[in-house]
Amino acid sequence: MEERTEIASLGEFGLIDHLTANNEIRNSSTILSIGDDAAVIDHFGRQTVISTDLLLEGIHFDLSYTPLKHLGYKAVVVNLSDIYAMNAIPTQIVLSIGFSNRFSVEALDEFYEGVYTACDKYNVDLVGGDTSTSLRGFVISITAIGEVEPDSFVKRSGAKPNDLICVSGELGGSFLGLTILEREKKIFEETGSQPDLEGQAYNVGRLLKPEARKDIIEYFAEAEIIPTSMLDISDGLSSDLLHICKQSNTGCVLYEDKLPMNDDMKDFAYKLQLDPTACALSGGEDYELLFTVPQSDYEKIRLNPGISIIGYMTEFAEGKNIITRGGNKHELVAQGWNHAKNK
Amino acid sequence: MEERTEIASLGEFGLIDHLTANNEIRNSSTILSIGDDAAVIDHFGRQTVISTDLLLEGIHFDLSYTPLKHLGYKAVVVNLSDIYAMNAIPTQIVLSIGFSNRFSVEALDEFYEGVYTACDKYNVDLVGGDTSTSLRGFVISITAIGEVEPDSFVKRSGAKPNDLICVSGELGGSFLGLTILEREKKIFEETGSQPDLEGQAYNVGRLLKPEARKDIIEYFAEAEIIPTSMLDISDGLSSDLLHICKQSNTGCVLYEDKLPMNDDMKDFAYKLQLDPTACALSGGEDYELLFTVPQSDYEKIRLNPGISIIGYMTEFAEGKNIITRGGNKHELVAQGWNHAKNK
Fold first, then answer.
1. Which of A26, A220, A331, B99 has its CA 20 to 30 A from that of A258?
2. Which of A29, A28, A31, A78 is nearest to A51 (CA)?
3. If 0-12 CB within 10 Å is exposed, 13-18 middle and 19+ buried, where does residue B1 land?
């Protein structure tokens, strides 16, 4: 039988000590970490970037198919992704959790194992937080802090007509991962059959263990690229590109045949009689970077195989369009990705 | 009939626009605010202080007797209190909320009215956040950011034997406010009688609309006082003083007759046959500052009528004690204040 230590046996302060006993400090900017009223950070000479996310059980994640370790890892990564999307480097996080009495110390340990694995991989320090009981459901709130050279942060609003539209990695996998897991959950609930995830490592992995594109931000620094606009794709490519267009006051042209798609994503989409392009355009939670650069950066962008050029920005009056494989032009619409609606 | 606008009628982005339409920027350090992946802050030449709190309906607050406007105000204030407790000045907050479909746009407006009132009063900028639906219950997560002159932040661990123990304001009121409201709620549930809060403005106000002691931090700067240790009282004086002793590796002596107590607090405590001293020692959520200063600061401290000197620190070996009015010495114990246990 698995060990189960009741959280009440440690007490609030005992629990915090337990969960943070092996917490490491990796950044010299971390002056004071966990254990006081607040943490202290020294970003002298750099600007501080801050972003926050709230993740609620039953809305943003389903513990029936999400291992707690993966959840801890992902909760951190999606926040860091927002910091990278500013062309900044994350340095610290604070993490609050609320949990009901169905959670054991071992369960929280698993969650924190994922948190610490992400902190280690992305070289960020966990410097504070709050733990609380909840009446029901697991609640996660993470705020990430980063740093950026003065005024070299990248907003959503700086894209110009003729800028190239670029995206890192591949699109649509996370949405299909969710679709598979929801389907298998339903089958299990109805028939008791164990999940069949044969050949689904790619799509499921994209959902449960996404990565933030630290490497792309490092490439920008190395190649001296400063995008004119950028965000990370959480709602879906269409919806997020329309955000950039709105905030930059531009139009855009996307090319269907340029959208980066993995074969495993396409194969499974066909199996479900879904259009892979629709998955790439509207599937959310890919956490890839969507950004624009001036045409003069074309050669630099081309050198990075992890980046695809998928279109270009236009004047506002030209609208937001996608050119299909067949050469037809359609208006780009935001299907979006609404966690609540997906349930 | 009260107006009720469904949140769904605005959509997620419409709701964010609506709630943040009148958001003001008050600090020149706020470089980029709401509307991007992250906010950007410029604390050049100062260190950044960060603290976070998670507030859950049914654990930390009860909407049956907590007006949403007060809740918004308090949620901000308790976070700012942590920043002041570092001897720092809060400059920005990020705010995430999760709400079920029982909430209307008007209800969220009320909550934000309280948030903005607190931002205005304490001169902080709301620079980001996250909004989400929840399956049930109202979830609030706030992270506060502040700034401090390099290395003039105050930790819990710097108290020395013979330092004076000081506290701002008065103690125990918030606990009695909670006791009254819980009692009236029970009576209402059992008999339908309307709450009788006659003469309870002080205690109820201490619970529902606490203030953070900005004025004390300003006085420190003015009088050139740097406390040797400090925290804000959220768990209760005993419990929080024991934190300072533990982290500073000292003992302490408190004097019962020096504990600052309001007459309304004492009167109601007697009415309930409670010991006002116990309320002052163990009642939580007072959000007063508890700090230590060297004896050489005695004259400076004495000049501020908002500060009481309640004891002194000792060597660790002398233990943690309270001297009663009758002159007896008792060991100081942490009753603590555990939201979950109070329910």
1. A220
2. A78
3. exposed
At A45, is the secondary structure helix, strand, or coil? coil
Amino acid at A245: C
Per the CB < 8 A criterion, the answer to whether B93 and A38 are in contact is no
Of B89, B119, B148, which closes a domain?
B148
The single-letter code of the amino acid at A150 is: P
Q: What is the pLDDT of residues B333-342, one digit of tens each?
A: 887 444 333 3
The boundaries of the domain holding residue A20 are 7-148
CATH of the domain at A124: 3.30.1330.10
- Answer whether residue B15 is part of any domain: yes
Q: Which residue of B has its CA nearest to A13?
A: B243
Q: Which of A95, A79, A37 is nearest to B51 (CA)?
A: A37
What tens digit of pLDDT does each residue of A275-310 get? 999 999 999 899 999 999 999 999 999 999 999 999
Quick one: closest CA in A to B92, which residue?
A: A50
∠ CA B95-A96-A38, rounded to 5°:
80
Interface predicted TM-score of the whole assembly (ipTM), two decimals = 0.91
Report the predicted TM-score, pTM, of the whole model to 2 decimal places: 0.92
Same domain assignment for residues A20 and A104: yes
In a domain, B157, yes or no: no
Torsion (CA) B254, B256, B258, B264 in degrees, nearest 10: 140
* A185 and A85 within one domain: no
Report CB contact under 8 Å: B38, A58: no
Q: Do B139 and A54 make contact, defined as CB atoms within 8 angstroms? A: yes
